[in-house]
Amino acid sequence: MKRNINTVLLLVLAGAVVFTSCDKKLTEYNPSGLTPEATYTSAKGFDALVNAAYTYTRFWYGKEEGYSLSEMGTDIWTNGTGDVFPQLSRYDNLQGSNTSALNLEWDNFYAAIYLCNDGIAKVGDVTDYTAAQKTTREAELRFLRAFYYWHIVETWGGVHFTTVATPAGVIESTANKTPVDQFYTQIFADLDFAVKNLPKTSGDYGRATIPVAKAFLARMYLTRGMNEQALAMANDVINNYGYQLVPRYADLWNMGNLKNKEVIWAVDYSTNLSNNDLATSAFPTGHSRGSNSGHMLFLQVYDQVNSAILQRDIPNGRPFNRYMPTRTLLNLFNENDDSRYEASFQTVWYCNKAARAAGNTFNSKDTNDFKVGDTVCFTSKNTLTAASMNAKRYTTYDMSRVYNATTGIPSQRRFYVSLKKFKDSTRAGFNEAQSVRDVFVIRLAEMHLIAAEAQFKLNKPDLAANYLNTIRRRAAMPGRENAMEITAADVSLDFILDERARELAGEQLRWFDLKRTNKLIDRVTRLNPDAAQYIKSFHTVRPIPQSQLDAVTNKGEFMQNEGYQ
After folding, report:
1. Both 276 and 363 in a single domain?
2. Does residue 27 carry a pLDDT above 50?
3. 126 and 206 share one domain
4. What burial class does residue 286 get, using C-beta atoms within 10 Å of its C-beta: 0-12 exposed, 13-18 middle, 19+ buried?
5. Domain boundary residue among 419, 438, 466?
6. What is the mean pLDDT of residues 426-439?
């Protein structure tokens, strides 16, 4: 049985987060009982340091703050009634002073950078490591530093950068503005070291390996327009490490099949919920602590449709009503050909409490006997006639009842087609906010999509179509494989972005995809009416948290990103 690397933080962080004020240090948490000196000189202590460096992925992956920064404010999602970060969803008065998600991610990414820098500087001091073990641990920390710096530089642009370990007990009070290119110079240097020095495989599920580093490197090459290198690296991962596409797209999301051959790297959440706790004071009270909360953020409030016959339960999930799909996302699918629509979205909710009730809330005069399993609510991606919907014994929400026909802006934000692929039917109770579902950070399908985009940009649309068809054939409804295939004439950058949305919706890549392709402003303006009225050219980076600007002493040098107050 493979071990789980993502357990609780196992060391005291002896220093402070980069340039935070004195009241913003990480809470110390030291269940291992190791002193800082032992941490840096013993294998046990240094292993704990490296494991702790991995845990910071859990502040982003599977967390509401991370979803809001990576999926919202794009062409495919808008905010439901329960959205707590509407500034990120719509760019409406987005500032560094009014969005706590920015503070949480900034603080913890820089805490992760601090830890990586410290470990890289001191791995040579470990007395009971072999030379090979020291190199492997350094490679892991360099991979993680590259990974965290990518999130920082793409989210905030050319902000603070350092590879120097902060001395214990020292609180940095100055910050620098470093060009984006310098971030990427270091990212590529760290990934090159990781690829050369990581092991090919690991017995600890979730630990970085050579193919993990190569897959992330392929993403970085594509981000920087290095298309030949992106293609070569993606092909290397596709062909040489035994990864395979899961035969059925729906099976990717089966809770009993999470550790499958398509997953290249995942944030592994423990089935022991207490192991997932995040041991810092930065995580807001009332959130789902250390576990995955993605299972509830995309669900409509089905338990408010008709509570007499449809009540909250475990199979339907805990509905938080944070995010809802734009009409654009729903219209990308031909549900007759593409199985990903049915596999990704829930459109029907069934009676789970037998009763006599007015089942159609738009036609309350029609009372019927409902038994368990009868349809109570249906949400359609199409526009239906009022007469046909009113004639049903159950409630229907079609496009005309959810989105304004003229503007495309949601007219109600509670009842809609809901992303279901992150649901967790293994939760202990229907109100359980924590999920043990792993979060897929990189999977093989992305490598095919990276190769397709690289081939297209290298003016080889026919070869790009081949990679896309591999993904599309897997997604085909039985017998519809030929209907799903495309030709070179179908391939464009917008088509590739559409395909990435169909394949990767909700997987915390969309904002980065649009930014990478210089399509963020264009596609949000055209395809997300909610955000179109607010988005500006400077929104390709997020505002620096005001708390960080207030904490630095060199305020004349370290200033807010352009466009923000």
Report:
1. no
2. no
3. yes
4. exposed
5. 419
6. 95
